[in-house]
Design brief:
This protein is an alpha+beta fold and 135 residues long. 43% of the residues lie in helices and 13% in strands.
Amino acid sequence: MKQNSINKAMKGNSKKKSKPEEIVRKFLYSKGLRYRKNDKRYPGSPDIFIPKYNVAIFVNGCFWHVHNCELFVMPKSNQDFWVKKFNRNVSRDERNIEELNELGIRVIVVWECGLKPLEREETLEALLEMIIDER
């Protein structure tokens, strides 16, 4: 895949509205939780921020954020590029989580693979429990 094709593919991945994010948002709204989307006031512009519980939620794609599951497969071509890209993504994620924790904000990461139909209900119920549990 040429660099132009890679850039085009990456631009096609909307930062603000993915199917997994939509699933999580609709679930939270149905449970009466109100949230802010992509709030730029916080490090990493969390996908979802719930002021009432001071919780930031990131809904991460397994491929882009290097999750150890069947959805992540290292591309065979241009591996130097991809290794650097993935390392930057993971470092940025870690830095954002650390900064949010320093601000006293709890961070929850929801992985795309957990929102597949067979795991979805269990994942979303666990998420709700983590949000409401204010420890």
